[in-house]
């Protein structure tokens, strides 16, 4: 099997020949069978929105790049947003325009051409307009995905002065409406819900710190609905191996709850109880994720290795954030911090640079970076963000690098803010997820 990038490259060598004329469905079907990693997206060439050469060029660029910046490395490429949602764009103009906005945004970042930038803004406006006009007639999950793509579009540019979560909340409100109508029975419905929860959980620590706080059970209640829907379709537990959230979705609930607790420092009685409950949950999760008494973790053979180490790093990052919340005076040189950081670095050192660029790893990487003191460790954690800022030129990567510089170096000397960065809202909100 070719890798995803090789698949795309070879596929489009042949596709460029076909698309000089009007492609027939049989020609596309041949390509679909030959390149199984990108079959479904090819059907979108029949969408009117993708019929012109300019749009085809954007689509080609999108297929080659989009999974790299949005999909976890552990996710089967047939289960990504691109593979599952792009075919729907053939009959959904809001989704088509949202994809085109993302594709042209990525292109403009690479070319630095103003024309590409203006084109992406045009597609963004068209997507918003069509979402508004098609809201009552289009499938709810399709509208939710279009809204989520607009959030990813903003993440690509990251050039708004006051980042907020209105796209995320809008997408989740749509999925709540879908749940109210019945169980989430399709793959695309599950994906849309997971995508909303994933982004809201991560954003809550950073770009969401200045947004109005949400209820404690905002994530957990929807995870329950998602799980019940999966069980009703007989997808439990095997569906977790193809899940965007991985096999430990409760970690994203913990991430979210920690973001709310962080706002309450110093903790009072009720909030301290909540912190103790989170500590107990992390303790209960540990045997599933880490070797205990010389034995591999319970889930060692059940799921892909990259899904396991992603969950491990989330667990350790949550542990560090919880330590700092419970003990505000905690410093990066304290023994308990260094023990945790060393455990995390042992995992990071086993992961390739390409795998470190997996989007879900950004959250634990940034949190754990606040506790690192060794230059070698800092460079290792900086390298995937730096690579993304050069290779993809994402606005979010560039702002993350500035955040890390403040954490480690401050004003250019050796007086970085370290772990205290986790309490600096004006600094946290510059990281846009």
From TrEMBL:
The keyword Nucleus applies. It is found in: Nucleus. One of its GO terms (cellular component) is nucleus. Its main location: nucleus. Keywords: Nucleus. It comes from the Eukaryota. InterPro entries: Fun_TF (IPR021858). This is Transcription factor domain-containing protein. It comes from Coleophoma cylindrospora.
